[in-house]
Amino acid sequence: MGMDKKIKRKKWTTKKIITLSISLIFIGYVIYSLLTIKNNQLNVKKERITISVIKKDSFQEYIPFSGTVIPKGTRSIVATEGGRIEKIFVQTGSIVKTGDKILKLSNTNLLLDIMYREAELYRQSNNLRNTRLEFEKYSIQLEQQLSDIRFNLIESENKYKRNKYLYKEKIISKQEFDTSINSYNYYKEKSKLTNESREKDLKFRNQQIKQLESSLARMNGNLKIVKTKQDDLTIKAPITGLLSLIDLKLGESYSPGRRLGQVDVQNSFKVRADISEHYISRVEIGRKGTFKYSNKEYKLESTMIYPEVIDGVFKVDFNFAGEKPEGVRRGQSFHINFELGDLSEAVLVSRGPFYNKTGGYWIFVLDKSGKSAYKRNIKIGRQNPLFYEVLEGLKPGEKVVTSSYDNFGKAEELIIK
Q1: Options 3.40.50.720, 2.40.50.100, 3.40.50.2300, 2.60.40.10; CATH of 74-107+234-263
Q2: Which helix (H) or strand (E) holds 191?
Q3: Which of 56, 165, 184, 248 is the most buried (most CB within 10 A)?
Q4: 118 exposure class (CB count in 10 Å sphere: 0-12, 13-18, 19+)
Q5: What confidence tens digit (pLDDT) does each residue in 83-121 have?
Q6: pLDDT at position 7 over 60
Q7: 62-72+268-339: in CATH 3.40.50.300
């Protein structure tokens, strides 16, 4: 009698189990979708959404940004003349007073230039002195010459008058009388020409002296300017305050115009902030901002707007308004809420992720039962970090869904469970 054949029972393999599980999950998802989405309805759990109440309240539009504390008064230290660092008198972090020496530069070319200009000034000064001496000697000689001519002119005139009488009385000959006339006319003409020549010569020599004096004055002025440059090699504190220098080393050379550091006025600070160019037309001088420091709120007021936009932002300076915080240091940052408009009443909806999906053009509004929410078109106006201003579509007291709409798909109605 033959033995019965043993039937082998099929085993559940891991692969089969995984395949069956994925299939069941997919079928479950399809069934869930069919049950939850019907006629553009979507079932949602109440604890997974955020419900906010529309309210009418005071509204202040403001924007948040960070501001950095900087000294209210700052003066840069600049090498107006190039040179090599010869000596550093004070170090970074020192308190300096106006006029205190900070460092000294040496400049060989400038020193040689001063020496050359001084030599030229000395040479020109000698030229002027010699020219004046020559002019004085010439004037004396000319006066002596003119004195002789005047004497001879008087003598010849007197002789001419005597001979005129004698000739009339026929005491002297006509030849002798003519000689006296000629002598008199000669000295008269000579006196006239000598005086004219003297005036021209004196005028020329005076112009020459004036030119030399003018040239000497220019050279002297230029020398003073160059010596001022030499004085500028010793760099001094422009104001009283806290000194901050870059990393300076003895013997290093620096070109003219190079910034070497700065001096900050102590205990006098302001706040500077970078603000998005989107708000450049709305930020005004005199507007207030607030920030918290040591668990206390303080106020700021905008005092300076820099209209230049760099990398999408522009700069604004703020002064502390009212009470000033103690212990503030340069470089500290504050989170500032800055007002853009005046305080006014408005219909408000809380900010939330719903805005990312809707752009503020629509929102889910709960019905009176609170069990359903429907899409409704709205219009959003101003905003701040807490609220949106509602211009159209919502009334105070209504409830809306302000959490994310990313999982709602194309649903027109939410069934809240």
Answers
A1: 2.40.50.100
A2: helix 174-232
A3: 184
A4: middle
A5: 888 888 888 888 889 989 988 888 878 778 778 877 777
A6: no
A7: no
Q: Is 101 exposed, middle or buried (0-12, 13-18, 19+ CB in 10 A)?
A: middle
The residue ranking higher by pLDDT, 276 or 145, is: 276
How is residue 191 written in tokens? 């006196």
d(CA 144, CA 198): 12
Q: For residue 291, what pLDDT is reported?
A: 93
| DSSP annotation string for 107-127 | -HHHHHHHHHHHHHHHHHHHH
**Domain 36-60+344-416, what fold?**
2.40.420
> Which token pair is 315?
């700069």
What is the Cα gyration radius of the chain? 51
pTM over cut 0.70: no
pLDDT at 222 > cutoff 80: no
pLDDT of residue 29: 56
The set of residues, in sequence order, having a beta carbon less than 8 Å from that of 212 and lying 6+ positions away, is 124, 127, 128, 131
* Angle at 111 (CA atoms; ends 106, 112), nearest 5 degrees: 135
Those residues whose C-beta lies under 8 Å from the C-beta of residue 202, and which sit 6 or more positions away, are 139
Contact yes or no for 339/288 (Cβ under 8 A): yes
Sheet with 253-254, side-by-side order of all strands? 234-236, 101-106, 83-88, 253-254
Q: In this model, does residue 1 exceed pLDDT 50?
A: no
CA distance 254 to 124: 35
Q: Give pairs for 221-224: CB < 8 Å, separation 24+.
A: 222/117, 223/114, 223/117, 223/118, 223/121
In the predicted model, what is the mean pLDDT of the chain?
Answer: 84
User: pLDDT tens digit string along 386-406?
Assistant: 899 999 999 999 999 999 999
* Calculated CA dihedral for residues 64, 68, 69, 75, nearest 10 degrees: -130
